Model the fold of this input.
Amino acid sequence: MSRFTPPSASENPVRRYDIWLWVILVLLAALYPFTQPTTARLLIAIQMFMLITLASNWNLIGGMTGYVDFGHLTFFGIGAYTVGILMTRSGEVIFAPQLSFWQAWPFSGLTAMLFALTLGAATLRLKGPYFSIAMLATLLAMREIVRLFTPLTGGGGGLDLPPELNRIQEYYIALGLMALSVGLMWWIRNSEFGLSLLAIREDEIGAEMRGINTTLHKTTAFALSAFLTGLVGGFWAWQNTYIDPDVVFFEPRNLEMIMAAVLGGLGTVWGPPLGAAVLYWLREFFWNRFLFAHLLGLGLMLIFVVLFLPGGLVGLLQKGRVTSVLDLWRLQPAHEEET
Amino acid sequence: MSFLQALLNGILVGGFYGFMILGFSIIWGVMGIINLAHGEYVMMGAYFAWAMFRQFGIDPLISAVLVFPVMFVVGYVLQWLVINRVVERPHLISLLLSFGISISIANIYKLIYTADYRSVTVSYAGSFQLAGLTFPTVKTIIFFAGLLLMAALHLFLQRTRLGKSIRAAAQNKEAAKIVGIDINRVYAITAGICVGLTAMAGAMIAPIQPIFPFMGPLFTVRAFAITALGGLGRIPGALLGGLLLGIVETLLTIYVPGTGAKVGTAVSFLILVLVLVTRPQGLLKGLRPVEEGA
Done:
């Protein structure tokens, strides 16, 4: 099927080189710790990188494949608890020596991926909305299950992880994870695999008729997304040094992940990182003063973006002009996201 | 607790669920929209009953009648101004939109009423004995009120002109337009009725349910599960799915040790996911499958 040349390579010379912009950005970011930043600033950067990573991973299943996952935080939580349990309780529970973070971390991605494969075998057979609600239910159920299995997870009391606070090391891990996730998205978007995912989003039956193995593609995308999300979760648990069901399965994080992808532009490579950066900036410098209304702000913003900016920020930039508010309100679906 | 008693409790809860999810089921059946804000309308009705009870000592059952016109207007306006704009667009858009509405409503209520748990204690909160079984009074009342309202809605949809135009819009939108039905208005009225009924359910459940701003998602997920089990926009299907879920939930809570009410709910979600996967077309045969698309 390699007769498909990705349209990007031939028609859009910009897109071929946009990855170099990303490489330069990442390299610049890698230099940041040499400017002797304060710990607080490093922490802000780490949090932002994590949000970008999460948004980009969510975009893989929610934006490109069109399976809106309202429970993606489940994989984050599984990753976090894998690292938490392996680092503190493995002696009592699974009779293995307690692992260091570096030994435990890969397992966070693997367990999340295994869970995604098991779950996906079931839920990915569900079409559109069925999938979304099944995942929402999974998230709600997972929070209660984690609370219930006290011997393993510490229940509501949570787990204390051995602290090993080296913010600069954490900064590079977060940066690497982000660079990897977004780079992978770029590669997927420009590969036949990515085109197949977009085809599934646009018309799943049609894609199947064309000979795309939709089940395989969907499951791969889901598992890959879960793997990376699990890694973020495991890393987050370690750098936070404490986990319990409420801080891990934290509602706003779930929403921010989705919101960032929608705000930036679903199914695009650069949209989710851009959306996450904007969203994070908004949160740090604006909403932090109105913390009580943070979720309300996110909810209203989601409504606004869905109604008026269906292509996200990237869609807005690509159109080359800012649509007038009146045009937006009349809302003829002249948007057409980049596909 | 005897098995029969457990079954009775399940049936009482389940019959009420059947009524509680009707709004969700009809909106989905008529407009093809998965309304993720459904649980929030239940929550709004419950808060209405709580506020009326606290301020004026009005019984939740009377509040349930009062709340209908108020929430009809809310549903109508929201549909007219916002949701009608995305009816034609892919599922993805309306899902995200209603998710945003759901979050916004829950958090507006959190700002107004704080996140504290509220409760309404009515004078008839006890139970009575009949044929060797214990009937919780409130649950019995709302069970029969739910059945009555379902029957009323059924008659409305079958017999009245407006009800017929709603069904016409659900069956074939283009044809409905051709025979002169103002589709946007029909959608708005449908949404008004559905939101009003959902809030009524919320007001009725206020005496037996802790009320807090984030109670919504539990009801939304239940509504979804029941609709998927029983079929879209079908009143008998809603009743059947509701009974099934009510019974499974109750039996699990009683017979599986160590599961409180919350965990019982979580486990029944998982069971429902399994049912969804193995029988995506629902439990009843011959139902209109959900349109493809995402």
About this structure: The two ends of chain A are 19 Å apart (CA to CA). The longest strand of chain A covers residues 159-160.
